[in-house]
Amino acid sequence: MFKKYLPVTLFFLVSFTTFQSKSDFSLFNIFNSKTGVKMVDNSSYQEECGSCHFSYQPGLLPSRSWLKLMSNNELSNHFEEDITFENKEIARKLTNYLVKNSTDNSNYRRSVKINKSIQPDKTYLRVSKTPYIKRKHYEISKEVLNQEAVGSLANCTACHNNAEDGDYNEDSVTIPSIVAGYISDELNKKPDGYEGNIKLSTQPYRIISTKVKESGEYKKLCRMVSFKTLNKFKVKTFCKYKEGNWF
Amino acid sequence: MKKQLPLYIFTYLMLIASGNAFSFDFQNLYKSWPIGSDINPSNLKGKDMWNYELIPGRSCSSCHGNDLTKTGRHMKTKKNIKALAPRANPKRLSDIKKINKWLKRNCKYTYKRECTSKEKIEFIEFIRHY
Hints:
By secondary structure, chain A is α+β, with helices and mostly antiparallel strands. Chain A has helices spanning 6-22, 43-49, 63-69, 72-75, 88-100, 109-117, 131-137, 142-146, 178-182, 184-189, and strands at residues 195-198, 203-215, 218-229, 232-241. In chain A, strand 3 and strand 4 form a beta hairpin.
């Protein structure tokens, strides 16, 4: 009775299997490949390249980008700084580490996605300029980026709370609040009941309460602040994770 | 007492040895820098030197802050920089290679040239005794 469905089913199964082998994240390797990008596991890289800025994982750029970045020409003008290595051996080892774990040599899912987005004739030196990253951040306003807590798209850890672990999932993103940024010192130090003025607008505010909220393994500190505007009060809650920004 | 004497002597010697391991020879470091150069060194000292902006907005304090016992922040990347004063961060000024590396790099960034020995000594003395 169901014999008539056999050809269609067979056709579906064959084409499904064929397409699976063509895709990057087919059922075949969905259990093998890991999400995000590979964590930095090189202490020399962490030390040499993570002192002044976030230690961008090698799996965020293709090997040709890293090779260019580590060339003498580029090292002497590394975003306006001369970081030429005295010890060439260290530089060589770092380059090897970077190339070995770059997007074109990684099967971590986000690295693969980044790699796919870059045209073969383009060699970006900034992670934030790759088409994939640009696309992911296009909704973020200049105002949010320019605030003191962030600065630019190069500052991943400002919003990506798990960036150090190579996890850039939107689940763990908290965008710093510009208003909270104005009063972050007070939020960090002053007790409940503190009254002050936001310098720029001379708007009066009062810290009302403080609470620690826990969800799973994440603990955040939250403070309620009331802002006075003319004849109204606006209440906002700002939270922060340990070592994070108020969002 | 007689039986334990060697142990006491051994312990005493170990203490002396370990004491030396932790003491950093600043005079040797200062001597390792070439004396004299054609560049006119800045004659500022202490806080003035620390806050001096050859390039507007770019001084030592721009990244390391005015209080060396507190965590600083890189002015461009916003990355936190651990306290520079050895009394707040014991690891500071304990590695000759690191001192030379960062003096070279940061002088080039702030002064657009390497610092003279006189300037370097001034910086290290300032940080050391902060």
